[in-house]
Structure formats: C-alpha cells, structure tokens
C-alpha cells in the first residue's frame, strides 16, 4: 500500500543526469584497398556529443520572477520596520536617537531590496527576450 502512494514533496525534482547525452554522427569514412579480409582498411568516424538539453529559459524566467517577489517582500518588510521605528521614536523620546538610526537603516534596506527587485525584473525580461529570439517568436506590428 505504501508503494502505491504518491508523495508530493518540494524537493523531488527531475535530475538532468537521467537524460542521456545527445550523440550525432557528423562524419564517417571508410577507406581501403585489396580484398575483403586482407590488405589495408581504415575507418574514421567522428562523433559529436551534445552538451545536454538546451537552456530552459522558462525556468530561468520563473526563477527571476520568484527573486523579484522576494525583493518586493524585503522592501515591504523593511519599509514597515522603518515606519515602526519612526513611531517608536515619537513614543519613546528617551531613546529617540536610537530609533531614528534604526529607521534610517530600515530605509536603506528598503531601497536596497527595491533595487534588487528592479534588477530581477530586468533579468526576467532579458530571459524572456532570449527565449523569444531562440524560438523565433514573431512580433506582429499593427502600425
């Protein structure tokens, strides 16, 4: 019964090594003289082994989209923490300077996370563009 159950876990991904490398014969030549079974004979065969499966741009695009969302989440969290520290600086005047410093640090973290999200958005667009170029997507211009 346990063998029949399918387990759906996060870390059960298909491995690249399960796929055999692509082999393709580029050049083959047989030269020789004399009778079969005797004399001189030479066979030359050149094989090209592919580098494996082609680059998966959809997977790369999904990866960059995920990282973009992580950057957005980081910017949101840092911004919320900055607002909290601003509130604390007003609420606790005795330690206001410390809260102001933490507010500034949170603002810097929010800017950095926002920049990371922006970077990943452009990486995702580049991956999409490369995928379209590789697969020959046609752009239809109306005007």
TrEMBL record:
InterPro entries linked: ABA_WDS
Superkingdom in the source lineage: Eukaryota
Any one Pfam family match given in the protein's UniProt record, by short name: ABA_WDS
Comp. bias intervals (Basic and acidic residues): 118-136
Chain spans, region Disordered: 1-42, 116-143
Record family assignment: Belongs to the abscisic acid and water stress-induced protein family.
Protein name: Abscisic stress-ripening protein 1-like
Organism the protein comes from: Punica granatum
Encoding gene (name): LOC116189346
């Amino acid at each position: 019964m346990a063998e029949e159950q399918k387990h759906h876990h996060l870390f059960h991904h298909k491995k690249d090594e399960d796929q055999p490398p692509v082999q393709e014969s580029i050049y083959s030549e047989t030269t020789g003289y004399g009778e079969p079974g005797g004399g001189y004979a030479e066979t030359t065969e050149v094989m090209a082994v592919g580098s494996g499966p082609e680059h998966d741009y959809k997977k790369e695009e999904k990866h960059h989209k995920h990282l973009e969302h992580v950057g957005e989440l980081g910017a949101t969290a840092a911004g919320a923490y900055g607002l909290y520290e601003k509130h604390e600086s007003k609420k606790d005047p005795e330690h206001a300077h410390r809260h102001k410093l933490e507010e500034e640090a949170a603002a810097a973290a929010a800017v950095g996370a926002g920049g990371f999200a922006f970077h990943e958005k452009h990486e995702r667009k580049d991956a999409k563009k490369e995928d379209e170029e590789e697969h020959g997507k046609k752009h239809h211009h109306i005007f």
